[in-house]
Amino acid sequence: MLSALKRAAGTVLEDIILYNNKSFLVPLFLIALLFLWVTEKKKRLRVVLVYLVTALGVVFVCPLYAWIGILIDAEIYYRVLWALPMGIVVCYSAVKLMMRFQTAVSRGLVFVLTLLVICINGDLVYTKTLHFKSVNAYHMPQQVIDVAEALKLDNYTPIAVMPAELLPFFRQYTADVFTPYGRNILEPAWSFSNALYDAMEGSESYYDAVEVARCAREEHCAYVVLSCAKQIRGGMEEQNYFLLDFVQGYYIYMDYNYYDVYKEQGLLDDDVIKAGETGREGT
Amino acid sequence: MEIIQWCILLTLVLPVPFFLGMIPVKYMSGLQRTPAMTYVCGWFVSFFLFELTAVPFILLEKSFTSLVITYTSLIGVVLLCSVWASRHVWADFARNIRESFSQPLPVKLGWLLAYFLIGVQLYMALFYEYYDGDDAYYIATSVLTDKFDTMYLRDAYTGYLYPLDARHALSPTPVYQAWLSRLSGIHPAVISHSVLSVVWLVFLYCIYGQIGNRLLPITKKTGRAKSNFRPVFLIFTAVWFAFGNISLYTSETFAMTRTWQGKGMMAGMVLPALVLCMIYLAQDKVSPGAWMLYECVLVSAVFSTSVSFMLVPTVVGVASVLIGIKKKSVRAAVNIFACCVPCLLLAVCYLVVK
């Protein structure tokens, strides 16, 4: 039990370090809290912003509480820190500090200094590389939308496999196509594995058409979407597929085995039938 | 057709929450009766009602359509009551708005700067996209819910059928977004990324505005002009949020980059609103409206994320003891903690179905 508590204490410390990430904002919060301990006179505010915040801080770093929290979900224990109103405490302390001065110049100086301290020690959210100018109202890459539109059938929900870069967005756009795996397979920590994924992503420079076709059939995929950035070794046509469309740098192949069944059952759209028949004439 | 869809959606996220907030605000003091407070209360009333309506439907594996019909009817009835209740509130709104126009120039400039900073953040939320992997679960769940008319019975990553996803089922934020999508006909990804990312940021700053109002009363010293530091508080808050991205884990990062997700809501809106409620509850006299808001916030915490099952009882437990001591009243402490009972029941539910 003692060692479990020690481990929990270590995890909490690690979470706080990761949360703060070499910045000064968490220490700034502690300084602001200390300032309120000394200066806040209103009882109702003192109870919430001083006593409650301090007590919560103590509870969250308490090894026993942390041990229970980690037992429930270790990965997200850091979120208990959200209950400490760091922004409110820091901003309110800064305003209180301003109010202690009587002249406009000194107040202005505190105002500017506060902004500088936050800006210099913080990290602007928009400068991170994951922020892009959006190209559509969906806020997702246009090629995902175009590929999804090309795969949809009016009367049936087919299964399609596609390159890894489309996976995080594809299912956000449509549920009209099933996928044998999704974005979950891209998270190494979640330990998902799939032979078709290995066949699709095994090489950075080429697709092995034989292996992709074999695995795709095992997963009952009617469609295979391949990126034009990679070579296709062997040719999908030789595996009884036809090229349905080429969209935004992606080849969309359809398996003739599914094509024939869907066609017989009247599930295919006219443009798919046209592409299928053209492909057949070509071979 | 598209214009009608957008009108419906904007009605659902702007006037509907505003009017829903009239009931709690009617029972608040005159000073608390502001349009921003009404909007804040309205959103929490929406989440409260949705949580209590949706969870039984989800656990009983009923269709999404039946939930849509029930919740929409419920909202309709509450909305009618709210519009009726609002007749007592407009006069206070008018007075509060009039007062806000009669402020000294530096205060007005302060408000302008605060609104400008918030405006920049709204612009960024609308026109810039942020890649977050978790959307592949949350938005995909909304899309699946709308398409297959089931809730948490399909794998968001594949679309295939699977047993009830109990871990997420009690925090149905994506289902709420699917409800918005079903009523408006607008895609859930557009709703989340282009509408809620903006509207919920406004909601977030409305909460901080109310916190500023409680922390910084307008004072007048003899021989000096009225001092109002509320805009300064909001300016600091806006800058704090913009620069709070010190790591992937901070509440500011979640609030700014995942505003539409339940986690972002918890970090940016629910927990600050809980602090606001605690400030109200620590007062000697608590208005019935503040109690209503408090209850709605607690249930909204469960609505947003399952982390609340641990976090909310802890915060409420500690706060009830401290406020009880401050008021020298066991009853006050018990009352504050008793409001947490619905969350505890949902927590038991979570542990049972998990």
Fraction of residues in H or I helices of chain B: over 70%
In terms of DSSP E residues, the strand content of chain B is: under 5%
Tell me the number of strands of chain A: 7
Shape of chain B: globular
Q: Quick check: average pLDDT of chain B? A: 93
Q: Which oligomeric form is depicted?
A: heterodimer
Low-pLDDT windows of residues of chain A: none
Highlighted features:
heterodimer; A: alpha/beta; 4-stranded mixed β-sheet; 7 strands; B: 354 residues; mainly alpha; 74% helix; 1% strand; globular
Produce a short descriptive summary.
The complex is a heterodimer of chains A (283) and B (354). Chain A is of the alpha/beta class and 283 residues long.
Walk me through what this model shows:
The complex is a heterodimer of chains A (about 280) and B (about 350). Chain A is α/β, with parallel strands linked by helices. Chain A has helices spanning about 1-20, 25-40, 45-60, 65-75, 85-100, 105-120, 140-150, 165-175, 195-200, 210-220, 255-265, 270-280; strands spanning about 130-135, 160, 205-210, 225, 230-235, 240-245, 250-255. Chain A folds into two domains: about 1-125, no CATH class; about 140-280, no CATH class. In chain A, the strands form two sheets. A four-stranded mixed beta sheet of chain A has the order 2-4-7-6, with helices on both faces. In chain A, a hairpin with a 2-residue loop joins strand 6 and strand 7. In chain A, helix 9 (about 195-200) runs antiparallel to helix 10 (about 210-220). Chain A starts with a helix and ends with a helix. Chain B starts with a helix and ends with a helix. In chain B, helix 4 (about 35-60) runs antiparallel to helix 5, helix 14 packs antiparallel against helix 15 (about 290-305) and helix 16 packs antiparallel against helix 18 (about 340-354). Chain B has helices spanning about 1-15, 15-20, 20-25, 35-60, 65-85, 90-100, 105-125, 135-150, 165-170, 175-185, 190-215, 230-240, 250-255, 260-280, 290-305, 310-325, 330-340, 340-354; one strand spanning about 130. Chain B has about 350 residues and is an all-alpha fold. Chain B is globular and about 65 Å long. Chain B has one domain (about 1-215, about 225-354). Chain B is built from 18 helices and one strand. At the A-B interface, helix 1, helix 3, helix 4, helix 5 and helix 6 of A face strand 1, helix 8, helix 11, helix 12 and helix 13 of B.
